[in-house]
Give the backbone structure.
Amino acid sequence: MPLKVSVITPVYNVETYLEECLDSILTQDLSDIEIICVNDGSTDHSLEILKRYAENDKRIIIITQENSGPGRARNIGLKKARGEYIFFQDSDDYLLTSNAFSVLYTAASGQDLDIVSSNFATLKEENQESHAKRTAGIISDGKRFLQSGETNTSAWAKLYKHAYLDTIHFMFDETIFYEDSEAFPRFYINASRVSHIDAVFYAYRQRPNSIITQNVTLKHFAGLKAIITTYTALLENETDNSFQKYLKKQMYNNVLYFNQLMLRSDIPSSIIDEIYKQIKNKLPFSKLELFLVQNDEKFIQYVRRDSKHKFSHPIIYMLRKLRKILI
């Protein structure tokens, strides 16, 4: 009998959180699992913790690599995985209930799902929680599911059929930040059967020194460029008008996020502007969408000069506020 679930967990300098993560996996009532922990060149006591746990539970498999990022760590885990289904878990996060895997697996295997997702809680350092509630129970194809907005762009809190990932030859981009967001549409676009469970199984820990909160680097901008490039490639091959609109909306949102990162970055504007120019030249946007992009560019230019300009150009400011209505 094949294993039911392979849990893939990249591990990098998380000695403070790793035991809580592993305990939440090992106490699941679905025991027919393997836990593939890819030590991504940790310099703290993370590897020692992994070895101690592996001595007591043979389901834990440790793989060590030089620090190469979570994308490569997950790809290595995928190559090693033997489970019928795949679950990605970050090593500073943890499962909130002991039946998370059994509920997800029962739904996925019983309904022959390619992907099934669940709700999650966001944990900040002050331990405040916010729960993301979603609609549950409806089975659709991946495109319709994406259009419904019923899931987040992270790889975690979802169970993926291993055979489906093999069929689409899935791999994470190993060279960028935001590898989850870049992979997100590729996970779903070819899926035939997707569903969601209205239960909060996963605790996502948002730390001050995580990738999404740390100082902005060139790798952040390169990641956003890769995301937009992926959506552009998908759009070029898409014939469904409604899904074309969805893809363009996601591209537009990422362009806006790129602009927001410009305000947080200390990188010389000439370097960032060149990356942005490369992105903008490939955008298949309408005149209205390009006008709103240009409006955001003006806003960035004004705020770069003086943050008080944010309120001294009310038309530009109001157009930014109205963009969700206009697009």
